[in-house]
């Protein structure tokens, strides 16, 4: 047999096989752990998706776009750059599908703001800048 620095080919192959088996077992255990902790988490169907603005910086009339998979009550709010409430843009009940809410930015001073979509189980927000 060939001896390489005190190791035989058989020992090197056995070591590689053991390392491969250990990595495989750790991968299986990790996937089982993720599956276990993922149970009971809310489905993505329970949430709205709020999209970013198409115009950067925002000026004039802008359109806030979001989608929902079910009928729900929503509130779209405008927040100052320190996340304090500036105003409520719209609060209403919406059907499933995509929705556009228009807002005239000329009514507020230029600066950095956030817009936040709230539902009974969610708050999601995006940042934007107004330069009229």
Notes on the protein architecture:
- A hairpin with a 5-residue loop joins strand 5 and strand 6.
- This protein folds into two domains: 36 residues; 87 residues, Macroglobulin (MG2) domain (Immunoglobulin-like).
- It is an alpha+beta fold and 132 residues long.
- The N and C termini lie far apart (81 Å).
- The strands form three sheets. A four-stranded antiparallel β-sheet has the order 6-5-8-9, with no helix packed on it. The chain has a three-stranded antiparallel β-sheet with strand order 3-4-7, with no helix packed on it.
- The longest helix has 30 residues.
- The protein has one helix and nine strands.
In short:
The protein has 1 helix and 9 strands; from the N terminus they run ββαβββββββ. It is α+β, with helices and mostly antiparallel strands and 132 residues long. The longest helix is centred in the N-terminal third of the chain and has 30 residues, at 9-38.
């Amino acid at each position: 047999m060939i001896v390489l620095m005190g190791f035989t080919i058989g020992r090197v192959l056995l070591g590689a096989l053991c390392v491969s088996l250990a990595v495989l077992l750790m991968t299986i255990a990790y996937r089982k752990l993720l599956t276990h902790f993922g149970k009971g988490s809310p489905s993505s169907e329970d949430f709205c998706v709020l999209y970013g603005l198409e115009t950067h910086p925002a000026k004039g009339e802008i359109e806030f776009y979001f989608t929902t998979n079910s009928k729900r009550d929503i509130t779209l709010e405008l927040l100052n750059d320190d996340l304090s409430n500036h105003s409520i843009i719209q609060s209403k009940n919406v059907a499933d599908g995509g929705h556009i809410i228009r807002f005239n930015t000329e009514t507020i001073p230029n600066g950095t703001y956030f817009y936040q979509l709230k539902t009974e189980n969610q708050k999601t927000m995006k940042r934007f800048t107004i330069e009229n």
